[in-house]
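A further point concerns the way the authors explain their paired sequence and structure data. The central task, working out the C-alpha cells from the amino acid sequence alone, is never made concrete. I therefore recommend that a typical entry be quoted early in the introduction. An entry of this sort, consisting of the sequence and the corresponding C-alpha cells, reads as follows:
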Amino acid sequence: MITARAAATFEPVGRSVATARAFVRDTLQGWGFTDVVDDAVVLTSELVTNAVVHAGTAADVQCLRQEHAVRVEVTDRYPERDIPIQDVTRPTHSPDHEGGRGLLLCSALASRWGVEYTPAHKQVWFQLDLPQRPAGTRSAGPALPTAALPLADERVRVAVVQVDHHGTITRWNEDAAELFGHTAGQITGKSLADLAAWPQTPGTGHGIAEAFLLSRWEGSYGIRGADGRVLPVYGSHLRVRDTSGEPSTVCLLVREDERAILQNPSRNPAPTDGTERRGRNTDPFEVFIGSPAPDDLDGLLQRTVERARDMLDGDAAYLLLATDDETELEVRASTGLPSARQRFARVPVEAGTGRYGSARMPAVHEDLTAVPGAVPLLAGTGMRSIVTVPLKVEGRLTGSLGVAAEAPGRYSNEQALRLQFAADRIALAVESARLTELERLRRGSLSFLVEASDLLAGTLERDQTLALMAQMTVPTLASWCAVYTIAEQSEPELAFVLHEDEDRIDGIKALLSKVAPPSPDPTPGARIWTAPSDAAHSTALRTSLRSLGLGDAGRPAAGPGTTLVTAAAVGGETVVLPLVARNRVIGMLTLGKPSDERFRQEILELAEDLSRRAALALDNARLYSERTAIAQSLQRSLLPPGLPEIPGVEVEVVYRAAGEGNEVGGDFYDVFPIRDGCWGFAIGDVCGTGPEAAAVTGLARHALRLLAREGFSGPSVLERLNAAILDEGTRSRFLTLLYGELWPQSDGSAILKIVCAGHPLPLRLRPDGTVDAAAESQPLLGVMEDLELHEETFELDPGDVLLCVTDGVTERREGSRMLGDDGLADVLATCTGLTAGAVAARIQRAVERFASDAPSDDMAILAMRVPEQPEN
C-alpha cells in the first residue's frame, strides 16, 4: 500500500542528473529513510542518465513510500530508445563498459526491479526494502498502542536556547545542560553556530544564521556536546522580540529520535475574549473537510483559497503551483484579487527580478509598504499584510499558499503556523490532482505490434534487443519468457530469462540450464515444448521425497519450498517460436505459463508476429555489434596509453569525442618522455570529426613521438609532420597543433619550449590570478609545403598553471553566444590554488554548463601545473 508519493520532471540536459539525485535524496531523508538513501541516489543517477542523456528525453522521477519499502520509478518519453541492458548472469562486456551499468546496479542493489513499457513511454523502477524502524511520524496521526510508541528517556528533556540577532547565546536552560553537558555559565555569550553541525534537513538551502532570521524554522542538525561528540537533535526555531523591540530567536531542541514531540501540532485554543471572529476555524485540521475530489483540480484549488482566507479572516488569498521544471510558481487560484490579471501569472522561485521571496519557508510581512516588491503579485491591490506558507510533498516544494489583508500587522507567527498545518494537510491532494491533470494530457495508445516494432527498431544493441523481446512478452503474453540464441555453427545458448516475479528468475534459469535446449526447427508457428514442465515436476518430486527421507538417501535435501515454487511457475504450457532471419534460425523465443494454464490461440498468433519482427531486429543488432566492436577496437589503438609521471609537474587531461559511439575524433593529445629530464606534450585539432579525422590524429601522434625521440627540435618536428600530412594527398586534412617540450628544474620551476601552429594559444595562470597567452600563433599544418616555424621559450614558476585546449572549448555556443578566448580566460582566472586535475575539471564544467545542448565538436583539455614549494 502506498502511503506517500513525491514526483518531479527533469529536462533532457546534463545538469538534470544532479538535480534528480538531490530530489531523491531530499525526499527519502525527508521521510526519514536515511538507511536506503545512498543506494537510491546511485540507482537514480544511472537511470536518469540513461533517460536524459542517452534517450534524450525528459525524465519523470516518482518516489513511492510503502509500508515496508521505497519504490523509485524513472520514466522517459521515447520508448524507441531503450536503456543499455545485459544478462547479468553472462557478462559480455569489460568492467569499464558503460552499457548496462544501470540495470546491473539495480540487480545488485535493489530488492526488486523491472522495466515496463506503454505506447508513450518506458519506465524503469526499483524497490528498496526498509529496515525495521521505531514508530513515530512527522505530523499528527492516529493513536498508537502503548507498545508501538517511540522509546524515550524516563524524563524527556526539551532544551530551550535563546540567541540574540547576532546568533550569540543569551539563555541556556537546565535541560540544555543535561543534554549537551555545557553549563549555562560556560556557554552564555558564545555563538550557537560554533556548536551546531550544519546543514539541517536536506533540501533547505539556509544556513543556521539564515534560519535564525526566519519567522519559523524546523529541521534536524547536530549540537556538539562537552565531550566533543555531536548529538543529533530536532529543532524548532521561533523568531520573537522582547519588550524593548530587540529581535531574538528561541530554539526548542530535543533528541532526533524524539522529534515527534516538537512535530505533533496541538489544537489552537479558542479566543479568550468571548468573541468569535468571522470565518475563523480554531482547528486547522478541519479547514479542508468537504473539499472536492482530488482529481477536480480547479475546484480543489478554489475551495482551498476560500477556506484559507476565511480561516485567517483575510481579505484575499491565492495559491501558486510549481511549473513542470519547478523553477517558477504559477497562480492557479485566487479570491479577493483581480483574477483576470493574476491567473497563470508566473514568478521565479529562487532568483531574478520579482522573485517570490521565502517561497520555501513560512513568511509573515506585517506591512508590505515597508518592503516594496516583496510579493509582486499584490502590487497595486491595496493589500498591506500577508502570511505565506509553502506546499511541500515530502520535502519537495510544489506550491505556495498566501493570505493577505488590507490592514497592516494582521498576522503573526501563530497564524503562519496554523496556515502551514492546513497547507500540509492539503499538499498531497493538490499534487495528486495536478499529476492526474497532466496524465490526461499525455494519454494515448498504439496497438501492441506497432509499439513492439517501434521499440525493436529503436535499438541496435544485442543485449537490449534480447531484453526488449522478453519485456514485451511478460506479462502481456506469458508469465515467463526465455530467449535462446544460435551463433553460426553452434548449439543453442540460453541468453535471457524473465519472469513477471523477479524473485523467480534465478530458479527458472537454474532449471533451464539442466534441460537440453529445444531443437532449432525453422518451421513457422509455435510448437509445444514439454521439457521444462517435465523437469520441474520431476525435480519437485525428487526434492519432496528427499525431504521425507525417501530416495537418494545419501544426498542432502535442498530447498523443497524453492523447488516447488519453481515447478509451479513453469509447470504450465510452454511453447517455442523460431527466430528466423535471412533464411537462418538465429534463435528461439520460449514462452511459458504457470501450472495448469494454457495459451489462447490469439496469443500464440500475436507471439508469432512478434517473433518475426524480433528476429530481424536481433540479427540487425548482431551485425551492428560486430561492426561497432571492430570500430571501437581500432579507435582505442589511436589513444595514448596513459599519462606519464613527471617529477615536479602535475598533468591532467580531459578528452571528449563528439558523435555517438566515437571514442576518438579530430582532437588529440599526447604527453610522453623524450629523454632523461625532458618530456614532450602536444594537443591538436584535425579538420572535421569522426573516423576520417581520427585517422589523421593517429598519423600525427605517432609521428610526433618518433620525430621528437630522434632529437629534432620543435620546429623541425612540425615541419616534417607537415610534409607527412601533405604526402597523404586527397586524404590529407588541415591540422592545428600545439607542441612543446618540458624540462623540470631543480629549483621547483619548469622550462618550456612551445611551437603553436595555428592552434588556440596556451594560457598561463599565475598565483595572483593573472592570465596571459604563453605563445604566438604561427601557420597551421597541412596547407603549404614550405613552413618556417620557430619555438618560444618561457619558464613556469611554482604555482603557475599552463592550460592548453582545442577549439571545441572556445567555440562552445549557446545561440549567438560563444564562450571564446576571453570567456575561457575568465574561467581560468578563478582556478588559482587548484590542482591540475581540479583546473581541468572546472574548465570542463564551465564548457558543459555554457549551453544546454550536447557538444557538437570534439574537446581536449590539457592542464599542467608546477606545485608551490612547501615552506620549511
In short: The first helix runs from residue 15 to 31. The chain is about 30% helix and 25% strand.
